[in-house]
Specification:
Elements lengths: L3 E5 L5 E6 H6 L4 E9 L5 E6 L10 E2 L1 E5 L6 H13 L6 E8 L6 E9 L11 E7 L1 H10 L4 H12 L2 H5 L2 H5 L48
Parallel strand pairs: 3-8
Antiparallel strand pairs: 1-2, 3-6, 4-5, 4-9, 7-8
Amino acid sequence: MGELVEHVDEHDRVLGVVERDEAVRENRPHRIAATICRDREGRILVLRRAGTLSRFPGHYDVMVGGAVDVGEPYEEAAARELAEELGINAPVHFLFKFLCRQGISPIWLGVHEALVSEPLAPDPMEIDWHDWLTATELRKAADEWCFVPAGRKALRQYLESEFEPVRSAPTAAAQPARTPTEPPTPPRNQKPGAPPAPSTPPATPPANHHPPPNAPQSRPTQ
């Protein structure tokens, strides 16, 4: 038997239990818990999903998360996914949830926030690249890079809401903005024969960051 999830309605009320693959195949709404991570400088974690994943391989995201188990609260699921995918045990705080009908199937997405102060240990089966960006840099990246639809929508709601200015560290606003550049490996699902990416001049990076010189051409999200 596959991964079990709760089938919910348009008000997030439980209707039954189904396999996750069936929920996706039959367009049955189910619950996903995810977390937006910030460091002590106020920057936000952005990651690229591994190319071997069955859902949105090679897409970018700002959320670490996954399906909520049967009977599991959103917040517990979010903390569990942080430990599984990033190897950290950081407290998570529930922010908001919404019904997202974009992407491969409708989901109720519970969005959380975590302040991360320990080193990350990303699971290479889930994540093949990550970096920390300021809110300004991430707004630009979200418009140009190939993001998971629900992640892009949650990010915009997060940045436009009261959470972003309240929780941002003062030092982050004082930092000079740099132009975010994608890593050299393009999304795994890029169409063969796509035109070459335009060259993007690298900006001055932080001391521990080495941005590549080229960014792949943006494509509309599926």
